[in-house]
Amino acid sequence: MRAEIGAVHWPWQSVRVAGTGSGGDLRLTAAQLAACPRLALRRVEFPVCAGLEIGAMHGRGVGVTTPTADRVVWLAALADARVQWVPVPRLALGLQFGLAAPLLAARFRLRGQDDDLHRAAPVAFRGAFAIELRFP
């Protein structure tokens, strides 16, 4: 069993109201904490992790008369499975497949609109290539 800390940054993504130039740009930045039991077979490991992600989802209005910016707290439960190759004791290269389930409603709405411009999905599927540096 091991504990992991990490971070994630999703760059600005554009969301627009259909048929208009108005909308918003959104990004997510968060820290991660996870517990990972793992199976190992020589230099190949198979960690399975569960944890939490906490940070902020930032949004800014675009194409509106009075653009504003705002942020909401992002809190999500994480679960993932990985395959890692460990060429040397302090380095691992691998593939990661998992999901994030928001625990708080993360949504943005343009001022004066009744509908959400963006609402985080109940479950987000993720995949990544990872370079891991290990400390004793």
Please characterize this protein's 3D structure:
The chain has 136 residues and is an all-beta fold. It has one domain (2-79, 100-127). It is 0% helix and 72% strand. The strands form 2 sheets. Strands 1, 2, 3, 4, 5, 6 and 9 form a 7-stranded antiparallel beta sheet that branches. A hairpin with a 2-residue loop joins strand 5 and strand 6. It starts with a strand and ends with a strand.
Main pleated sheet: 7 strands, antiparallel
Distance between the termini: 14 Å
SS-based class: mainly beta
Number of helices: 0
In terms of topology, how is this protein built?
Blueprint: E1 2-16, E2 23-36, E3 38-41, E4 44-62, E5 69-88, E6 91-102, E7 107-108, E8 118-119, E9 124-133
Antiparallel strand pairs: 1-2, 2-4, 3-4, 4-5, 5-6, 6-9, 7-8
Short descriptors:
single chain, two-stranded antiparallel ribbon, mainly beta, 9 strands, 136 residues
What is shown here, in short?
This protein has about 140 residues and is an all-beta fold. The chain is built from no helices and 9 strands.
